[in-house]
TrEMBL record:
It catalyses: O-succinyl-L-homoserine + hydrogen sulfide = L-homocysteine + succinate. The modification N6-(pyridoxal phosphate)lysine is found at residue 215. Homotetramer. Pfam families: Cys_Met_Meta_PP. Pathway: Amino-acid biosynthesis; L-methionine biosynthesis via de novo pathway; L-homocysteine from O-succinyl-L-homoserine: step 1/1. It comes from Candidatus Raskinella chloraquaticus. Catalyzes the formation of L-homocysteine from O-succinyl-L-homoserine (OSHS) and hydrogen sulfide. This is O-succinylhomoserine sulfhydrylase. Its cofactor is pyridoxal 5'-phosphate. It comes from the Bacteria. The lineage of its organism: Bacteria, Pseudomonadati, Pseudomonadota, Alphaproteobacteria, Hyphomicrobiales. Belongs to the trans-sulfuration enzymes family. MetZ subfamily. Keywords: Amino-acid biosynthesis, Methionine biosynthesis, Pyridoxal phosphate, Transferase. NCBIfam families: O_suc_HS_sulf, PRK08133.1.
Length: 400
């Protein structure tokens, strides 16, 4: 296998070019598209080579639970895109989040996390980790001091999403990274909403970035996948053995779909972000809406921070209707183009009512603390023409 482009330092290229080329390895056939290695295992020329490979003294693949050429191309591509040394792919975003956290802690340790999280992320922090003797503290992450005050001698990690799912809160990654560094602990950022193109947490000082590749990286609603992006040392010290022995591996087929997704990520995210920006502006003064949430609008609570930390506002817009659940449901049911779905990052525009879906298992009080009202909907803006999207939303708001 040969690595292409051959005489090019991939790190000298812009992210858009890395997303197309980084990590590509070609077989002896010189195929244009990345080869799909649908194989569980590998064969060896002789027993001594096999033994050497298991000892780590012969480079090469052993078993697709922990290494596969197609998966490894995806890992190299996302690492290059993120400017990181290393990455590991997993079966889902939640497998990446769970491994990223569990790999850093053991019984008796403590984790601090922002309280505003995707429902499953909050489950892992709040309920799953404590089952194994790992305490967790949830904080209102916009206040920097709460991170410092939540530290204990046994704290091992900070965790957050920014912008958050679904309320689009933006946290100061550089400032929280400084607190983590001072305390000698690791800092994990779930960068799903920002995408690798619009925010680079590792450059802001985070130690580990996680993705649900299911979202913008596939971007066409086909496969589940997750990614952990970090340094060689953190992979070796905390993740390599856990991934190898517990096996939350991505299928090579899904990894191949994600490689194809990364090739078009920049054009999709750029267009979806342009659509989202325009929709947020056009809807901001709509008389059926109480407020619009979009990180790059001046009326967003963390507008200045979003401008500093993100390269654009992203593909998601929060809409808070006037009224309650019945008004939100009437609005959703009156949409004709935008589909009701709990997914996001898709080429198709999708809309979600978080309080009855992704966050339905929380108490009304917990939802209120997370900023999720019954009249709040999360819009994932797709690739349709913005005039068609506006007409659909405006018409449905009229019916609501
Ligand atoms: C969807 C999502 C996840 C989980 O990803 P899956 O691929 O669905 O497992 C984690 N974090 C955030 C912010 C998400 O939006």
């Amino acid at each position: 296998m040969t690595i292409t482009p051959r005489r090019l330092d991939i790190r000298s290229l812009h992210p858009q070019s890395r997303a197309v080329h980084a990590g590509t390895e070609r077989s002896q056939f010189g195929e244009t598209s990345e080869a799909l290695f649908l194989t569980q295992g590998y064969v060896y020329p002789d027993a001594a080579t096999c033994a050497a490979r298991f000892e780590g003294n012969d480079p090469g693949y052993i078993y697709s639970r922990f290494s596969n050429p197609t998966v490894s191309m995806l890992e190299k591509r996302i690492a290059a895109l993120e400017g990181a040394e290393s990455a590991r792919a997993t079966a889902t975003g939640m497998a990446a989040v769970t491994t990223a956290l569990m790999g850093l802690v053991g019984a008796g340790d403590h984790v601090v996390s922002a309280s505003r999280l995707f429902g499953s992320c909050r489950y892992v922090v709040e309920e799953f980790l404590p089952r194994f003797g790992v305490a967790s503290t949830l904080v209102e992450g916009a206040d920097l001091d709460v991170w410092r005050r939540a530290l204990r001698p046994n704290t091992k990690a900070f965790f957050l999403e920014s912008p958050t799912n679904p309320t689009l809160d933006v946290y100061d990654i550089a400032a929280i990274a400084a607190i983590a560094r001072e305390a000698g602990i690791k800092f994990i950022v779930d960068n799903v909403f920002a995408t690798p193109l619009l925010q680079s947490p590792l450059q802001l000082g985070a130690d580990v970035v996680v993705y649900s590749a299911t979202k913008h990286i596939d971007g066409q609603g086909r496969c589940l996948g997750g990614l952990i992006v970090t340094s060689d040392k953190i992979i070796q010290d905390h993740y390599h053995t856990i991934l190898r022995q517990t096996g939350p591996a991505i299928s090579p087929f899904n990894a191949w779909v994600m490689l194809k997704g990364l090739e078009t990520l920049s054009v999709r995210v750029e267009r979806q972000t342009a659509n989202a920006t325009e929709l947020a502006d056009r809807l901001a003064s709509h008389d059926k809406l109480k407020r619009i949430l979009y990180p790059y609008r001046a009326d967003h609570p963390q507008y200045e921070l979003a401008r500093r930390q993100m390269r654009a506002g992203g593909t998601l817009v929060g809409l808070e209707l006037k009224g309650g659940r019945a008004d939100a449901f009437r609005f959703l049911d009156a949409l004709n183009l935008i589909a009701i779905s709990n997914n996001l990052g898709d080429a198709k525009s999708l809309i979600t009512h978080p309080s009855t879906t992704t966050h339905q298992r929380f108490s009304p009080q917990a939802r209120q603390e997370m900023g999720i009202s019954e009249a709040y909907v999360r819009l994932s803006v797709g690739l349709e023409h913005v005039d068609d999207l506006f007409a659909d939303i405006d018409g449905a708001l009229g019916a609501a």
